[in-house]
Amino acid sequence: MLAESLVVAGMIFVVGTLGVIVRRNVIIMFLCIELQLNAVNLTFVAFSRYVGIEGQVFVFFVIAVAAAEAAVGLAIIISIFRHYETVDVSNFNLLKW
Amino acid sequence: MAEILFFIFAAVAVGAAVGVVVSRSPVASLLFMVTTLASTAGIFVLLEAHFLAALQIMVYAGAIMVLFLFVIMLLNLGHEYQRDIRGNVAVIMGFAVTGLMGGLLVRQLGGGTAGLETNLGPGDAIDAALLEYGAVGAIARPLFTDYVVPFELTGILLLVAIVGALVLAKKAS
Fold first, then answer.
1. N or C: which terminus of chain B carries fewer CB neighbours within 10 A?
2. A46-82 pLDDT, tens per residue?
3. Does A59 touch chain B (CB under 8 A)?
4. B112 to chain A: nearest residue by CA?
């Protein structure tokens, strides 16, 4: 089941990358980043059966970091939305506001 | 049986991942994302990562996705259906980049999936630990011995993230 898992993880990762590049809604871009993290988690778990339990420990850390990243990223989105009244990234073209 | 379940979960996961990218409404994207995460949790169970499957459902699908939903509701984006795909150049670039990535992955996997499993040996590296300590104990043991410093640092990271999120989202007075 290792090869099949790697194929599925690769497909999810590629779809997530496409979403980050193609969409302009910042929340959906952020969701697609989570999709990529999820694909990497799947790869770690698939290999952990062959290499050792450390793969699962790493997935634990990835989930914790994803939670922290979601909290900070969504706070940034709220902060930007207060100023621009939009979530379309093509409007976020100034570094300072 | 396991193979059939695996292919069902895999198809649902990939299909819902496509749904995240193509659906117009942010809420629909979010629900597709929850479907992907739940199907991935099913695959985790099939790959003998029971604790991570529970964690994925509770923390990822339960907490992080609800946080996203809160933000969508707070910013009142639930009924925003305008088209937000980038222009043609960006779309072509996106498909080129992802096509390249997918091609490289196919090239890597296409040649040696049979060799991969013979090189790595039988998939029983964690079976003994799972039998001896149970699904949670097997992952808790390395977490609190070899990886205890990263584990504590994760706690600090979460604290910093909470404080940072509060500072960023607070109304400037």
1. C
2. 989 888 888 899 999 999 999 999 999 999 999 888 8
3. yes
4. A3
